């Protein structure tokens, strides 16, 4: 499980022992010395340190992760503060200084683990208020503890600031991409580049994709996996635990990146006028996908395969006939969904083992196929009840859920070892990509419809998009052809040359 470092050597020496055994409290049930269930109140009590007890760190992580399905984080913090202050008699102005000195390091350690591992909880002002009230009481009159509290608060503020800056950066990136798409629709000639003109080295492209993946992974916090369920517990309040809390959007942004990369791959393949160029783009992406696999970047790998398997791309049989597909077949086999993605899971275990024993940062990289990770956690949550028949929390379920999330927490902390290429990153994040309909139009312009279903779809799309957005784009690039969207009665097909300078002369 994720673990934070001890506060300081001085605090540990003052009586804090992080290896003390757990005590078995009333309302908690164990099997083979493993906590399997308990009432919510008993679990909260089990979280709070005492004079001779500190909770196991795996318990802290598991309970703080899962408790939000039953109680709002700020309510949990309020209860923890109350137990610390009242149960341990810290609210008494005459409290024994020696008692505070023994308890303060443990409580501060708990708060530090909470603020470092579940930082996003503290975007809630009520959380920050409770945190400051408790730490002020603990550090009152002790310079050492004041320094520790100050450092903890500063680290938390920096992390929340980084989150806000990341969210602002995402907004700017999305705005830039939207603006470029608007420009493309209005003035197609304004954008005349393709990916191979930006980068034709598969290894470099795979490295830049890994930069984006690791940056977006690093901003996903564990509580976002639970918030994604957004489902109230029927035995608790009718109000969702997240309804009045500002939610982090890092997980959602990461899923959107996968979709964008898939559509970008399909766009780059469908965009070229000539079959030879389309085949070259296909082979480039196959090489990029292979490099992603070698790096351990399974998310980009699957996004590329997904893009190449989209119908507008897969139907380009003449183009595929020009591609050496042996490497692609191997990659598809690795990511084959049969057997619940058995081949991929085997490769992931191998990458994880390599990461654990790695000497270099490059070998530590493990970027999972994220949608499958979310699916696994979702079905784990749906497959077992949160409550036992007696109303107790099913903690055995949450041990397993925490195990899955904690493994992700290790992967997301890896720093990307590759040098950034700003031009490539900017292109990947902001270049306009075709919609599904536009991809089909481009695909039909590349290789005409082969059956009645495709012909009907092509006709309907041409009615919706007169003239074809693809035609606008390619004509602006000086493509040597006459397109059927502009010249439906012309016998000259795309890629065969249209004479007269080669560009479409229709008034768009």
UniProtKB/TrEMBL annotation:
Cellular component annotations (GO), alphabetically ordered: plasma membrane
N-terminal Ras-GEF domain segment(s): 31-161
Cited Gene3D superfamilies: Ras guanine-nucleotide exchange factors catalytic domain (1.10.840.10), Son of sevenless (SoS) protein Chain: S domain 1 (1.20.870.10)
Coiled coil regions in record: none
InterPro entries on file: Ras-like_GEF, Ras-like_Gua-exchang_fac_N, Ras_G-nucl-exch_fac_CS, Ras_GEF_dom_sf, RASGEF_cat_dom, RASGEF_cat_dom_sf
Record has Ribonucleoprotein as a keyword: no
Residue span(s) of domain Ras-GEF: 201-449
UniProt-listed GO biological process terms: Ras protein signal transduction
Keywords, alphabetical: Guanine-nucleotide releasing factor
Any one GO MF annotation of this record: guanyl-nucleotide exchange factor activity
Cross-referenced PROSITE patterns: RASGEF, RASGEF_CAT, RASGEF_NTER
PANTHER family: GUANINE NUCLEOTIDE EXCHANGE FACTOR, RAS-GEF DOMAIN-CONTAINING FAMILY MEMBER 1B
Protein name, as recorded: Ras-GEF domain-containing protein
């Amino acid at each position: 499980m994720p673990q934070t470092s001890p506060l300081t050597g001085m605090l540990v020496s003052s009586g804090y022992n992080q290896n003390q055994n757990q005590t078995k409290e009333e309302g908690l049930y164990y099997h083979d010395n493993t906590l399997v269930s308990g009432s919510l109140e008993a679990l909260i009590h089990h979280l709070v340190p005492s004079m001779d007890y500190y909770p196991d760190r795996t318990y802290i992580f598991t309970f703080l992760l899962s408790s939000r399905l039953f109680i709002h984080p700020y309510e949990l913090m309020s209860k923890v503060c109350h137990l610390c202050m009242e149960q341990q008699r810290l609210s008494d102005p005459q409290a024994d200084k020696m008692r505070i000195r023994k308890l303060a390091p443990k409580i501060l350690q708990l708060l530090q683990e909470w603020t470092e591992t579940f930082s996003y909880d503290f975007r809630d002002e009520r959380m920050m208020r409770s945190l400051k009230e408790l730490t002020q009481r603990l550090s009152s009159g002790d310079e050492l503890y004041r320094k520790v509290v100050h450092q903890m608060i500063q680290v938390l503020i920096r992390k929340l600031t980084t989150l806000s800056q990341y969210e602002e950066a995402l907004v700017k990136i999305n705005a830039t991409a939207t603006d470029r798409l608007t420009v493309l629709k209005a003035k197609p000639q304004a954008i005349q580049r393709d990916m191979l003109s930006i980068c034709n080295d598969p290894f470099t492209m795979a490295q830049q994709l890994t930069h984006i993946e690791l940056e977006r992974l690093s901003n996903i916090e564990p509580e976002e996996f639970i918030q994604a369920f957004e489902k109230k517990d029927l035995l608790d309040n009718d109000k969702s635990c997240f309804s009045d809390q500002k939610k982090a959007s890092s997980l959602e942004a990461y899923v959107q990146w996968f979709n964008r990369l898939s559509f970008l791959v399909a766009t780059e393949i469908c965009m070229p006028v000539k079959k030879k160029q389309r085949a070259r783009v296909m082979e480039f992406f196959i090489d990029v996908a292979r490099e992603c696999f070698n790096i351990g970047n399974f998310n980009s790998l699957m996004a590329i395969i997904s893009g190449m398997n989209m119908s507008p791309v897969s139907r380009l049989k003449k183009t595929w006939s020009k591609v050496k597909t042996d490497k692609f077949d191997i990659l598809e086999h690795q990511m084959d969904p049969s057997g619940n993605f058995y081949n991929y899971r085997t490769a992931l275990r191998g990458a994880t083992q390599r990461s654990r024993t790695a000497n270099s940062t490059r070998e530590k990289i493990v970027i999972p196929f994220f949608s499958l990770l979310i699916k696994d956690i979702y079905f784990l949550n749906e497959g077992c009840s949160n409550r036992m028949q007696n109303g107790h929390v099913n903690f055995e379920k949450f041990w397993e859920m925490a195990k899955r999330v904690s493994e992700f927490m290790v992967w997301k902390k890896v720093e990307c070892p590759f040098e950034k290429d700003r031009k490539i990153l900017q292109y990947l994040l902001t270049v306009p990509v075709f919609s599904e309909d536009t991809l089909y139009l481009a695909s039909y312009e590349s290789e005409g419809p082969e059956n009645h279903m495709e012909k009907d779809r092509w006709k309907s799309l041409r009615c919706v998009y007169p003239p074809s957005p693809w035609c606008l784009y390619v004509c602006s690039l000086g493509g040597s052809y006459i397109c059927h969207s502009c010249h439906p009665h012309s016998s000259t097909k795309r890629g065969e040359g249209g004479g007269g300078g080669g560009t479409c002369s229709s008034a768009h």
